[in-house]
Design a protein that fits this description.
Elements (H helix, E strand, L loop, with lengths): L1 E4 L2 E4 H22 L22 H12 L6 H6 L18 H4 L13 H4 L1 H7 L13
Antiparallel strand pairs: 1-2
């Protein structure tokens, strides 16, 4: 299949590659334009390139956690009336926020919230997210 670029025809693969490059650059520029991330309480660093090795669903979950608008979090589910309470399912004493994921006494880790940006693969492993396409839940 061919697509038009100006007066020239390009292949579907080339079209997809160019479209992906435009999307990636637009997302990068948008992220860099943000001043303060409310999870970090500071300007977010760039996301480590290693995240691209993760399946889309896992990358989506990490992105949602970076904003705290994630169905992975009981605080978010409670806010949208999908959970009875906002408490952590591990300790049941603190609100289940992005920051709490890395500080829960019942689920200890040496990772920090900043590792959502710096060490996305380690965070995905800690959160038991799919590490490859075969592990992804099809639903």
């Amino acid at each position: 299949e061919q697509h038009l670029q100006g007066n020239q025809s390009i292949s579907t693969d080339e079209y997809k590659q160019k479209n992906k490059a435009i999307h990636t650059e637009t997302v990068r520029e948008t992220i860099l334009s943000y001043n303060t991330n409310k999870v970090l309480n500071e300007r977010p660093p760039e996301i480590n390139i290693s995240e691209s090795q993760l399946p889309r669903r896992s990358r989506t979950t990490l992105a949602q956690l970076r904003s705290s608008y994630s169905p992975f979090l009981n605080t978010y589910l409670h806010r949208i009336n999908r959970a009875e309470n906002p408490l952590c399912p591990h300790c049941n004493t603190e609100e289940h926020t992005t920051c709490h994921l890395f500080n829960c006494q019942q689920n200890p880790t040496n990772l920090t919230v900043k590792d959502l940006w710096d060490k996305p693969i380690k965070v995905a492993e800690f959160l038991h997210l799919a590490m490859n396409e075969e592990e992804e839940d099809p639903g």
